[in-house]
Each structure stands twice: as structure tokens, then as C-alpha cells.
Amino acid sequence: MIAADIRYLLPDTAEEAVDAWRRLDGARYLAGGTEIATAARRTAAYDLRTVIDVKRIPEAHVHEIRGDCFRLGAALALSDVAAGDAFPLLTAVLRGIADRTVRNRLTLGGNLAGLLPYREAALPLLLADATVLTIAPGPGDAPPVRQERPLRAIFDKRLVLAPGELVLSFCVPLDAAEWIWSHHRRTRTGEVDYPLAAVALVHDGAGIRFAVSGVHPYPFRADAVDAALSKDGADAIPTVLEALGPLRADARASLEYRVALLKNMIRAGLEELA
Ligand SMILES: Cc1cc2nc3c(=O)[nH]c(=O)nc-3n(C[C@H](O)[C@H](O)[C@H](O)COP(=O)(O)OP(=O)(O)OC[C@H]3O[C@@H](n4cnc5c(N)ncnc54)[C@H](O)[C@@H]3O)c2cc1C
Fold first, then answer.
1. Predicted pLDDT of residue 42
2. Which of 13, 18, 35 to mutate to test the pocket of ligand 1 (most atoms within 8 A of CB)?
3. Which of 121, 194, 208, 239 is most buried per CB count within 10 Å?
């Protein structure tokens, strides 16, 4: 059962949110709340004294072209991002996550920053070399610090954020929308299930970029793999498998099945890009 005496804050600006986080011990940012509510129901040990709802922060809801990128707010629901169709690969990936009703609740920032596995929304953002705008408490009494950094620089299996750092938006270069892309996703049951493997490939005009989730509980992209696939195509599949290291094997799929699935998906993806 979730504790009844939770302090709920609804700041109007990013600065107010960060300031509240700094003042109040144990505060958490709340977006769609799906992961937080599940964790709080599961164990009374989950610290839920204060939640800071990011829903009113305008910067976390941007959904527009700004300069040379699509700016996508971290608090946008996955269904809203997919409906915008600014980046077709992102749309395809998001439509594979949960069902429409659930996607109305799950947010882009929650998918990348949360603890639940797979974080599939990261695949197209990693492939596009998107950047992330965040705001974090400054040192001591200093004002909050905003930073725009490459996603790949602060993504290690999940978004690695400083204490109190809030993700405001992601910036996807406009040319990424023009690239040829391929997306394959396989589950054990029906469409609405976690992936056994989800593979995304793009050709950026100069070479191939590859990202995958499902075979590990987190997304993976590596320059060495991109270079090998660009040079040798399907012949580079053993290199891809080596770079991925031991794949997940569980009650849903054996190691052998996942390896075979992955090989087929990469081959199919490369054919689509050719
Ligand atoms: C039924 C269901 C099916 C799912 N299926 C899939 C799937 O197939 N593939 C997949 O990849 N994922 C899947 N997920 C996971 C889901 O995408 C993420 O858990 C979800 O996006 C969380 O979003 P939220 O807004 O509800 O997060 P919340 O519960 O609000 O927050 C989650 C965590 O992220 C932090 N956070 C949220 N927003 C920010 C921000 N802007 N800045 C900093 N920290 C932030 C919160 O403090 C919290 O720690 C599924 C989830 C559910 C409930």
C-alpha cells in the first residue's frame, strides 16, 4: 500500500523543481508515475516522502523544431511523441512499447531515466546522436545549472544523472529523420510484451549505425560495431555478437534462440537498408 502522507509538489518552472528537490530530503521527480507507483506499492521501504511532478514545466513539454533539431520534452507521453511522427524510427520504436493506453502515461524521460529494463526509446535517440538538456542543483547556494550534452556521453545502460538533476528535453538532429531505417522487435507472446530482442539500424549516408535492446536489459550501441557493419555488412555479425558479450538467457528465451533471432534481425535490417 502506498503511504497516505506524501507531499505532492507541482512546480511551474524547472528552477522551482530543482530548488524543491534541494530543500526537501528524499524528494523524487514524478513524470507519468507508473514506475514510482509500482515501486511504492511493492515495498513500504520505498522512500516516497515527497514527489515533484514535472507535468507543468513548459520546457519538459516542448515538441517542436528549434534550430537544426526536433526538441522533444522529457515529460511528453510516448503516445504524444509517436503521434508527432517527427522522427519515423522513433515513432516505430515507441509504438512497440506497451499498448496505447499505457503509452498515454509513460513518458520519454521516464523511459530513459527509470529503472525498468530495456529503455527502448533510447535506441533511436542513441542512433541519432541526440543531445539532452538537463538542469541540476548548483553547488552550495549557487543557482541551478543547465547543460546540453550528447546523450551518449551520459548514457550508460540508463541515463546517468547527478543527484537532483532533471531531464528537460532531447534534441534530435533534423537530418536523422531523412535516414533510411529499419526496426525489428520480437516478443515471446503478443505485441504487448517486453522484447526478446529489439534491433534498430540506420544508414546516415556515410555508414550504418546499429543499436539493440532486449538481448540485455538495457540498450547497446558501440562505434566499433557500427564501423564493422558499415565495412563488412552481414559478415560482421560475429563481431557484433562478440561486442555484445554474453546475451540474456531466461525463462522467456534461451541463449541460442536469442542469438539466432539477433542474427536474423540484423540480416533482415541490413537488407532493408541496402
Ligand atoms: C505496462 C508497462 C509496459 C512496459 N513495456 C515496456 C517495453 O516494452 N519497453 C520499454 O522499453 N519499456 C517498457 N516499460 C517501461 C516504461 O517505458 C518506463 O518505465 C516508463 O517510461 C516510465 O515512465 P514514467 O513517466 O511513468 O516514469 P515515472 O514513474 O514517473 O519515473 C520513473 C523514474 O524516472 C525518474 N524520472 C522521470 N522523469 C524524469 C526526468 N524528466 N528527469 C529525471 N528523472 C526522471 C523518476 O524520478 C523515477 O525515478 C513498460 C512499463 C509499463 C508500466
1. 86
2. 35
3. 121
